[in-house]
Amino acid sequence: MKQMWQVFQMTRRYDSSAQWLMLLGFLAPVLVGLGLALWLGEGNGFTIALWVVAGVLAGVLIALLILGRRAERAAYAQIEGQPGAVGAVLRSGLRGGWVGNEMPIAVNGKTQDAVYRAVGRGGVALISEGPVTRTKRMLDDEQRKVARILPNVPVTLISVGHDEGSIELHRLPATLRKTKRTLTKPEVLAVSNRLNSLQTALPIPKGIDPMKARPQRGKMR
After folding, report:
1. pLDDT at 47 over 90
2. Average pLDDT over every residue of 191-211
3. Is 58:26 a contact under the CB 8 Å cutoff?
4. Distance in angstroms (rounded) separating the CA atoms of residues 61 and 221
5. Domain boundaries, the chain
6. What does the DSSP 8-state code read for residue 21?
7. Exposed, middle or buried: residue 187 (CB in 10 Å: 0-12, 13-18, 19+)?
8. Residue 80: which residues within 8 A CB-CB, separation 6 or more?
9. Which ranges does the record mark as transmembrane (predicted)?
10. Pick from 136, 97, 138: which is nearest to 118 by CA?
């Protein structure tokens, strides 16, 4: 209960309408249950109590479902626009058989724009993080690489951001789930393993900020 209260407090800070939606989601089933109890109970106290209890339980369930969805959106809102936000969603927010990695497959060290990859029943999804004008070329390059390795696997290009043609961060999992299913589960695993085996490590040393990294100078002789 303490953890749920903390989640509710966090959600309310970033989404003021969440508490009212939860209240509406709770009261609607309670009122329906009360109405059915008075209509079908016919003066039977036990039957009336059952309908009321059923309405309360349904109201609690709906309120918790609303809290879960709104809490997820609030969590995404806190990291949206930050480098690595797409990776965080791919690591913990994917469902429906999609597999993603929090590490990007391509990074622009100057702008911190990045391209991520996910594999699922809908094929391969390439997801850019950054303005469309800067990431379009990166997406096209990665699409050509996938097409050369797996020519028969469909590739979906997705841009995350606020530009025209982009989607907001919290819509990424739903967008992936809506892609047309063309691969079986064994094929998803085979495609993922194939791409991971060919993926080379990004030239970013651990513990080094790419925005502050300086080229090494040759030794004087």
Report:
1. no
2. 60
3. no
4. 74
5. 1-79, 85-198
6. H
7. middle
8. 168, 169, 170
9. 20-40, 46-67
10. 97
